[in-house]
Amino acid sequence: MSEPRLTAGLWVRAALRMGDLAGQPGAVLRKGDASAGGVLVVLRGRAGLTVLAQARAADGATAWLRGTGAAPVDQDAADAYVARQVQRDPDLWVLEFETPDLVPPFEAKLI
């Protein structure tokens, strides 16, 4: 039996609130499907940007992949990645957080 999952809209609101509480403000760059959309998170830091893509770990739990790779990228590379993903899945949400160390302000298992 799988664990109950939050709707995308509720998860987005919670992530933005956690960012505010952590002093890492966030914004919705693109609104997706409120009930079933996936999420991309752009982290903007001192070294550049990285885009996290929502995924599932082997155990079925929510996890995150560094979609743009291990190293930070520039704005053009991040924008291109987001555009490709949105083209494949028009229900995607896209969030952005200001985070100096490129660590998300919400609990995130990186795989």
Which helices and strands, and how do they pair?
Layout lengths: L7 H14 L4 E5 L8 E7 L2 E9 L5 E5 L8 H14 L4 E6 L13
Parallel strand pairs: 2-5
Antiparallel strand pairs: 1-5, 2-3, 3-4
Can I get a quick summary?
This protein has two helices and five strands, in the order H-E-E-E-E-H-E. By secondary structure, the protein is an alpha+beta fold.
Task: Explain what this protein looks like in three dimensions.
The protein has one domain (27-111): hypothetical protein tt1805. Strands 1-5-2-3-4 form a five-stranded mixed sheet, with helices on both faces. The chain is globular, with a radius of gyration of 13 Å. The protein has 111 residues and is an alpha+beta fold. It contains two helices and five strands.
In the CATH scheme, the class would be Alpha Beta
Radius of gyration over C-alpha positions, nearest whole angstrom? 13 Å
Helical content class: 25-40%
Decide which structural class fits the backbone: alpha+beta
CATH fold title? hypothetical protein tt1805
Shape: globular
- CATH superfamily name? Protein of unknown function (DUF1491)
What assembly state would you assign to the polypeptide chains in this entry?
single chain
What is the second-level CATH architecture?
3-Layer(aba) Sandwich
- In percent terms, what proportion of residues is strand? 25-35%
Main beta-sheet annotation: 5 strands, mixed
* End-to-end separation: 23 Å
- Count the strands? 5
**Structural domain count:** 1
Low-confidence stretches: none
| Spatial strand arrangement across the major sheet | 1-5-2-3-4
